[in-house]
From TrEMBL:
It is found in: Membrane. Keywords: Membrane, Signal, Transmembrane, Transmembrane helix. Residues 1-27 form the signal peptide. The chain crosses the membrane at residues 43-62, 181-198, 210-228, 240-259, 271-289, 301-320, 340-359, 366-389, 395-414. It is a multi-pass membrane protein. This is Solute carrier family 35 member F5. GO terms for cellular component: membrane. Belongs to the SLC35F solute transporter family. InterPro entries: EmrE-like.
Length: 466
């Protein structure tokens, strides 16, 4: 791993640690909203948190880049409505006044009459009895484009990768990135909202520690989906060592699930189902986004999340009315000042900041490590529940966190060494050693058998002594 990649990997790991802390704070504040503040409306809370993503577009809307983008769009619409004749007339007006210069048919640098050779070679193709002659005008008309249009025409003829580097260096407005961010937000905002809604529903029905423990199974779904939706980076590829890391996480989840949950405040067993469904949704969201975005390209993450907030605000508000009409979740009365404070604090810390850092860490490290890092939330939530809510957990719950922590550190090493598979290496070495040992014993047995046969033949054929 190069120095720049190492620095990016370390920054990604630090971002994941910070995200875990923010998500623990968010989980505890969500529990306070649902339990203590008696505001049991998970869909409304998730909708408000999603709408807070739109604050990322404030910087874009106030920047000159936004004005250039919309001016270019309006100019493009105006150009489409103009007639071709008017278009040609405006183009002729944009050109400079014509001036004439003499055409030099002789290439003085090479000393060869290239134009005449081309004419003669073309004339030979149509050689006939009647001689043909082509004459060219000695003068040509020259018009010069304005400097801005000439620059745009030059940039339009460049390769796309070269144009991207120039646009990034000199701040040329990149219309494609805005379109790409909006198109991706249209695809992924239902996935993101569904996963977060499932997480909020689980927090409303189950203890936050149990929800976070079961949410760590997203690493298993991520590994399985990575094998079905392969990425171009080697850090996302399936191997045996990653499967073992996930197996350790599953063992920890099994230990936690086997604990007697009568000491917990569980309103409904559907809380566990919501937790698993949310972890599966997060896995689809992370793997599909990493597959959709080219690692060589750059995703405008603030713009992407800003468009997610705008799309949720526009397309999902009718569901609030529908849930109210069906009696599944009432819309009124609206939250009071204290409830609004906790909802906004939860949205800013656990959604606006944490989601951005988590997605950034996915691209700095790997999707597998980012989802497996959710296991670090478990000991943090256990400590937070004991300190804040005086919840007593069995010893088996703490034992279940040990394999999860071990799997996270193992995944960190595997992500740092992208193409290294230590488990497969050990298994291959063991199989080779066993095969070598079996071959040696087979050869020794064969040699021993041949020696016994020679001795037996010699004893049989040897004549008796007189």
């Amino acid at each position: 791993m190069e120095a720049e990649n190492k620095r990016r990997f370390v920054l990604g790991c630090l971002a994941l640690l910070l995200v875990n802390v923010l998500w623990v704070v968010s989980a505890e504040s969500s529990r306070f909203i649902f339990r203590q503040a008696k505001f049991e409306r998970p869909f409304f809370v998730t909708y408000v948190k999603a709408c807070l993503f739109s604050v990322y577009l404030i910087n874009f809307c106030l920047s000159p880049r936004c004005r250039r983008f919309f001016s270019d769009r309006l100019a493009g619409l105006e150009e489409q409505s103009i007639d071709h004749s008017v278009e040609n007339r405006d183009l002729s007006r944009a050109l400079s006044e014509p001036h004439y210069e003499r055409v030099n048919f002789l290439d003085k640098d090479n000393g060869e009459n290239t134009e005449q050779e081309d004419v003669q070679s073309a004339g030979n193709l149509f050689a006939a009895n009647i001689p043909k002659k082509v004459s060219f005008n000695e003068m040509r008309e020259v018009r010069i484009l304005p400097e801005n249009e000439a620059t745009e025409a030059y940039l339009a003829r460049l390769p796309y990768t070269v144009w991207i580097r120039i646009a990034h260096k000199y701040g040329i407005p990149d219309t494609f990135r805005v379109k790409q961010a909006y198109r991706l937000s249209l695809i992924f905002f239902p996935l993101w909202f569904t996963a977060n809604l499932s997480y909020s529903e689980a927090l409303n029905l189950t203890e936050s520690s149990i929800v976070n423990i079961l949410s760590s199974t997203s690493s298993l779904f991520t590994l399985l989906l990575s094998s079905l939706i392969p990425s171009s980076t080697s850090a996302e590829r399936f191997n045996i060592s990653k499967l073992l890391s996930v197996a350790l996480t599953v063992v920890g989840v099994y230990i936690v699930s086997s604990v007697d949950q009568t000491s917990f405040e569980v309103k409904s067993p559907f809380g566990i189902v919501w937790s698993l469904f949310g972890s599966f949704g997060y896995a689809i969201y992370a793997v599909a986004l990493r597959h959709k975005v080219d690692p060589g390209g750059k995703l405008e993450m603030p713009m992407f999340f800003g468009f997610i907030g705008v799309n949720c605000m526009i397309f999902l508000w009718p569901l609030l009315l529908l849930l109210n009409l069906l009696g599944l979740e009432r819309l009124y009365a609206l939250p009071n000042a204290a409830q609004w404070l906790y909802i906004l604090l939860n949205g800013i810390l656990g959604t606006v900041i944490a989601e951005y850092l988590w997605l950034r860490a996915c691209f700095l490290t790997s999707t597998f490590l980012a989802t497996l890092s959710l296991s670090l939330i478990i000991p943090m939530t256990l400590i937070a529940d004991q300190l804040l809510w005086k919840t007593n957990f069995p010893i088996y719950l703490y034992l279940g966190t040990l394999p999860m922590l071990l799997s996270f550190f193992g995944a960190t090493v595997l992500s740092a060494c992208e193409s290294w598979d230590p488990v497969l290496t050990v298994v291959t070495w063991t199989v080779c050693q066993v095969q070598r040992l079996c071959c040696r014993r087979r050869k020794a047995l064969k040699k021993r058998t041949e020696l016994d046969m020679e001795q037996s033949i010699s004893l049989i054929t040897e004549p008796p002594s007189p």
